[in-house]
User: What shape does this take?
Amino acid sequence: MTAAEPGAAARPRRLRVTGGCHCGNLALAFETARDPGELVVRACGCSFCRRHGGRTVSDPNGRVEFVAHDPSLLNRYSFGLGTAQFLVCRTCGVYIGAVMAEAGSAYAIVNVNALQTPEVFAKAAVPVSYDRESATERRTRRRALWTPALVVERSDA
Assistant: This one.
């Protein structure tokens, strides 16, 4: 589309950032039409996120795709209330994001530290704690705030 086409100015340009784990087995592509400065970067206070130095971002109007090139090396780690799976590479140990699957849909957050260009989300992370949420409250918050997601498992070998 060129700038001269009708409606071109009204359509926001989509930002697409990619990343993945250190060894390359897990990849991700995050898309948003929002300015990266408008998105809240969160630093969850749970022990998993603290130990991984996780800084996460999401956009309920965006999309994210996670790809496991060798699905046997994808660790889907759950803990606590078990309402999400944290995607961790079994080879290099990098945490790339978390996914909640529900009723045929999936919602995710992306670990900014796993992006090729983490500086796109350079502002300071906001500390958050979800310890007091029930499983129902947690799922409701995630449906409202997390990014629609797709997890693709394929054997590229």
